[in-house]
Design a protein that fits this description.
- By secondary structure, this protein is mainly alpha-helical.
- Helix content is 80%, strand content 0%.
- It contains 5 helices and no strands.
- The longest helix has 39 residues.
- The radius of gyration is 25 Å and the shape is elongated.
- The chain starts with a helix and ends with a helix.
Length: 110
């Protein structure tokens, strides 16, 4: 009887100490890799922190991604996407400045 109790306690402690490996959906993995490849984040650590994943996990995803795609085609697409995103950010900033200027000059005209 004591032996059975000891075995049960050992099994319970193993269950508690065994860490369950987290699994992320493929769409989430693709999204994170795509965002990193687009150049939004300067480093893997920064991107991983933004998505609350470990940098080792992201490095693994990037390694698998790089093995399964043609680097030249992807790098051209990713550089174009990064360029367009930067252009969009600049246009949004300019739009905000113009809105503020219009408000300022409208108040001055009164």
């Amino acid at each position: 009887m004591e032996l059975n109790l000891i075995k049960e306690l050992a099994n319970e402690s193993e269950a508690i100490t065994t860490k369950r490996k987290s699994s992320y959906p493929q769409e989430f993995r693709d999204q994170v890799v795509g965002v990193y490849k687009s150049g939004v984040y300067a480093s893997v650590d920064e991107c991983a922190a933004a998505y609350s994943i470990s940098n080792k996990t992201l490095y693994g995803w990037l390694h698998k991604y790089n093995q399964s795609t043609s680097p030249k085609a992807i790098s051209e697409q990713q550089s174009e996407l990064a360029r367009v995103k930067k252009e969009l950010a600049r246009a949004k900033m300019e739009n905000e400045i113009l809105k503020k200027a219009a408000i300022y000059f409208a108040n001055q005209a009164r």
